[in-house]
Amino acid sequence: MIAPDPSHVERIVKNALAEDIGSGDITTSLTVPAHARTDAVIVSRSVGVLAGIDVARAVFAAVDGRIVFEAMMEDGSEIARDDLIANVQGGATGILTGERVALNLLQRMSGIATLTARYVSLVAHTRARIVDTRKTTPGLRVLEKYAVTAGGGHNHRFGLYDGILIKDNHIAAAGGMRTAVTAAKANAPHTLKIEVEVTDLDELEEAIDSGADAVLLDNMPVETMRRAVEFAAGRVILEASGGVTEENVAVIAGTGVDLISVGALTHSAPALDMSLEFGGNHVGQHT
């Protein structure tokens, strides 16, 4: 689990705060004395896995560098209902202004980590690794992919720039699979593997014969996937993709594939419920 680049976090936080604050927090400025100080806590209201604690810290620091943010739990920690996640102390106006953005990012990332952890646990008895996809929220990819790792999952390529994945439309536009793979192998940096998407065993054979390093088995029935594993016999990395759910992921993993990519980790994870409370309004911390 490698923390996101601070410059990326800073940019995301800056944009999120600008979107929320605009010309100013009018409610807080009209109702709260500028000199008011407070102690607040961030509390979990549900069960899950934490991700984004340093991102929340960065939000409050961007609003008011004098705010003291004390994390009580680390990313990757299991959270119980009413767990105390962080103490936040300082100017009440700054804490109120940063509250929603900090919680939005913390809840979103923790939701992704929580869903990822469920998938990882379902295939723990197999060799398969759970990986994410590029189906992320525009502008938040670096945070969402980090959250996947906090939940025990692994990252696929980050973008179009750091991995070669030849899909059906690339094959059609290039004039065939072998043509596409040959062109990629001739021009790609030696550090990049070449992955090809296939839908049946004939295409798998062609991908292997063309020199692919990895093959994505797209929406294959489980029995066909099992035969694909037998046919490949370890010659290429095999990735299962498409239609993966919590109900079928263990069966897919049981076929012997190396990777299972799950778009739902980032495009469908529900936010983990959390709240920021002033004073003594929280229930307390579970140990």
Task: Describe this structure as you would to a colleague.
With 287 residues, this protein is α/β, with parallel strands linked by helices. The chain has two domains: 6-119 and 270-278, Quinolinate phosphoribosyl transferase, N-terminal domain (Aldehyde Oxidoreductase, domain 3); 123-267, TIM Barrel, CATH 3.20.20. Helix content is 43%, strand content 18%. The chain contains eleven helices and twelve strands. Helix 6 packs across helix 7 (177-187) and helix 8 (201-210) packs parallel to helix 9 (222-232). The longest helix has 31 residues, at 92-122. It is elongated, with a radius of gyration of 23 Å. The two termini are 24 Å apart. The relative contact order is 0.16.
The CATH topology of the largest domain turns out to be TIM Barrel
Q: What CATH architecture of the largest domain would you give?
A: Alpha-Beta Barrel
Total domain units: 2
What does the overall shape look like? elongated
Give the strand line-up of the largest sheet. Answer: 6-11-10-9-8-7
Radius of gyration over C-alpha positions, nearest whole angstrom = 23 Å
Write the H/E string, N to C: HHEEHEEEHEHEHHEHEHEHEHE
Q: Determine the structural class based on helices, strands and strand pairing.
A: alpha/beta
Q: Tell me roughly what share of residues is in helical segments.
A: 40-55%
CATH homologous superfamily designation of the largest domain: Aldolase class I
Low-confidence stretches: 280-287
Question: Largest sheet at a glance?
Answer: 6 strands, parallel
- Helix tally equals 11
Distance between the termini: 24 Å
| Average pLDDT figure | 95
Number of β-strand runs: 12
Strand content: 15-25%
The first-level CATH class name of the largest domain? Alpha Beta
